[in-house]
Design goal:
Layout lengths: L4 E6 L5 E6 L4 E4 H7 L7 H4 L7 H4 L16 H11 L32 E5 L9 E5 L16 E2 H11 L9 E4 L28 E7 L2
Antiparallel strand pairs: 1-2, 2-3, 4-5, 5-8, 6-8, 7-8
Length: 215
């Protein structure tokens, strides 16, 4: 069986720019292709016949939103697998249709802190005005993707990054940080991105999960 999607042009730096769907006989720009392969794609197994053969491990639900909570929590990391198969990101990631034992470097890109990684998320379930985003410091090998106990970025570090790139406010702006167990990042529970919490920089035990909203 022929490969479903092939790259038809690249930029001078080697970035894939245009694609052709052999099954539909249609051409796509990079933007169009990204929309096709987002984490909610329900027929990923039809696009890639190698590395994506088990529907329960590789397909999303097709609703156009990268899920971030039950029952679609897995879409936030299988999206990396889709991007990898499409040659649009470095690394190869193994899909994991399970909430537990999400391993940075294996299922998602690893971060600079030990046992941290990046998950693609859509936080519209918490706030209708939110856009898709990138979460850092939530998933680790000891926690679960529902983020009840796995915020890993020290609060003072999260505050410093937020202040440098955004407004320095924990639950305002396009960078928003919340805690896991104990809510010791901003004083807000994990699903509250709109409160008035501030980084608890004086608390040496403060840890945060940071979320960047795409502009």
């Amino acid at each position: 069986m022929p490969k479903r999607v092939k790259v038809t042009s690249e930029s001078d730096s080697g970035r894939n720019q245009h694609f052709h769907d052999n099954f539909k006989n249609t051409d796509m720009t990079r933007t169009q292709f990204v929309k096709e392969i987002q984490g909610g794609i329900k027929n990923a197994t039809a696009y890639w016949t190698v590395g994506c053969t088990t529907p329960t491990d590789c397909n999303g639900n097709g609703n156009g939103i990268i899920g971030s909570d039950d029952p679609d929590y897995y879409e936030g990391h299988i999206a990396w697998h889709h991007l990898s198969l499409a040659g649009m990101t470095n690394g190869a990631y193994t899909p994991l249709n399970s909430a537990l034992k999400l391993e940075p470097g294996r299922h998602i890109p690893a971060g600079p802190y030990e046992a941290t990684g990046y998950v693609l998320r859509n936080l519209i379930a918490y706030e209708p005005s939110f856009r898709p985003g990138l979460e850092y410091g939530g998933p680790n090998t000891g926690g679960d993707i529902n983020h009840t106990n796995d915020a890993t970025v020290p609060g003072r570090v999260a505050e410093s990054v937020d202040r440098k790139f955004d407004d320095g406010l924990a639950v305002k702006g396009f960078i928003r940080s919340v805690g896991g167990t104990g809510d010791n990042c901003s004083g807000q529970p994990y699903n509250n991105f709109t409160g008035a919490g501030s980084y608890q920089v004086a608390n040496a035990q403060s840890t945060c999960s940071m979320n960047w909203f795409f502009k």
